Amino acid sequence: MAGLCRVGADDGRPPRMGVCVQKDSLFPRRAQILPGILWFLCFSASAAAAPDAAEVARQVEYVNRFQALDNIRLGERRRPMVLLDRRPGGRIRRLTMERHRNNRYPGGGIAARDLAIFRAGKLRGTAILLTEFKDRRRNAVYSVWLPSLRKIRRVSRPDPEDTWNGSVFTYGDVYLRRATDERHRLLPAQRFEGCLGRMDPGAEPRKSLPWWPEARCDLAGRELLRLESRPLWSGASYAYRITWVDPVTFADYRSDFFRDGRRVKRIDKDWRPTGLPDPRAQYWVYWYARAADGHEGEAAVPPRAVAWNEERDPGFWSERTLRRIKR
C-alpha cells in the first residue's frame, strides 16, 4: 500500500510531501519517496489551501543553506567570488573569496560546514570555517585561520547585527539568521515590479570585471509570496522585514527591512535553478544590498565558477585545510 504523507529527514531538513510505502514492500528504500516534481506539486497544492508562514520561512532557510545539494562551491582560486562595497562618497572596496559548503554529514552531530577563503585585499590568506550542528541548541563554531600568526583562533558566535567584514551585509544576513529567530506571518501575494537592484562598479573596476552581472528583470509580473518577519531578539536593527518568496522554489528574491515606519535596507538575490529534480536546489549569481544612508554592496560569482554535488573528500572542510592555506 502507498499513499501521500509528510516525510521527515534525520539531518534536520524540513519535512516534505512524498509517497510512503509499507516497510514490507518489495520496492527499495530510495523508491519510497519520489523527489522533485511530485514533492512540489503536493506542497504547492496544500500551501495554496492553507499557507503556513512558519513553514515558508523554514523552506526559505532550506534554500539559503543549499540543503537540497550535497555540496556547493561559489568561486574558485582563479575565478573567485567578488564583493564590492561602497560607502556614501567613498571609494569602492573589493574583497575576493571562495565559498565551499558541505551539507552531507549522515552520522554524528554535525549538520554542515561552510568554508570561506579570502584571496585578495587586507584579508588575503584568511579563512573562516563554520561548523553547524544538528542540535539547534548548540551554537555554531567559528574557526578562523590568521595567516600572519599561522594560527587558528576559535571565536564565539558574532552578533547578528555585526557587519560582515565591514560591508553593508551583516552576519545575520549572511549566516546567522534562522527561521526560528523571527515571528512570521504571510501577507497577500503580489506581482513583483521592476528589476532586482545592482551596483554599478564604475569604469575602473569594470575593466577587470567584464563579467559583472546586469540587473535581473525577468521577475517583473511574477506573483510572489510576501512574508513578514519580526525579530525575536532585542537589539535588532530593524522592526520587521518583508521578503518576496517564490511559491514553488522558495527562493527569496528580495527582503526589505523597516524601522520606525521607513525602509532602512534592501537585499536582492538573483537565484537560479540547478536543474535538479528538487525545485529548491538553487544557487545565486549575485546579492545586492543598499542601506538608507546610501551604503551599498554586491557579491557576485563569475560565470562557470559555481559547481555543486562534486565528489569531494569531506576532510576538505577541516582545520587541516586552514593550516595549508598560503597567503
Features:
327 residues, mainly beta, outer membrane lipoprotein receptor (LolB), chain A, 15-stranded antiparallel β-sheet, two-stranded antiparallel ribbon, 5 helices, 17 strands, 13% helix, disordered N terminus
List the helices and strands and how they pair.
Blueprint: E1 2-7, E2 16-21, H1 37-49, H2 53-64, E3 71-74, E4 81-86, E5 93-102, E6 110-120, E7 127-133, E8 141-146, E9 151-155, H3 171-176, E10 182-191, H4 203-208, E11 223-231, E12 240-245, E13 252-259, E14 262-273, E15 282-291, E16 296-300, E17 306-308, H5 319-324
Antiparallel strand pairs: 1-2, 3-5, 3-17, 4-5, 4-16, 5-6, 6-7, 7-8, 8-9, 10-11, 11-12, 12-13, 13-14, 14-15, 15-16
Percent helix, as a range, is 10-25%
SSE order in H/E notation?
A: EEHHEEEEEEEHEHEEEEEEEH
* Topology-level CATH name of the largest domain: outer membrane lipoprotein receptor (LolB), chain A
Total domains = 2
Identify the CATH architecture of the largest domain.
Answer: Clam
Description:
- This protein is mainly beta and 327 residues long.
- The protein folds into two domains: 2-50, no CATH class; 62-324, Lipoprotein localisation LolA/LolB/LppX (outer membrane lipoprotein receptor (LolB), chain A, Clam).
- Helix content is 13%, strand content 38%.
- It has helices at 37-49, 53-64, 171-176, 203-208, 319-324; strands at residues 2-7, 16-21, 71-74, 81-86, 93-102, 110-120, 127-133, 141-146, 151-155, 182-191, 223-231, 240-245, 252-259, 262-273, 282-291, 296-300, 306-308.
- It has a 15-stranded antiparallel sheet that branches. A two-stranded antiparallel sheet has the order 1-2.
- The longest helix is centred in the N-terminal third of the chain and has 13 residues, at 37-49.
- Residues 1-12 and 16-35 have low confidence and may be disordered.
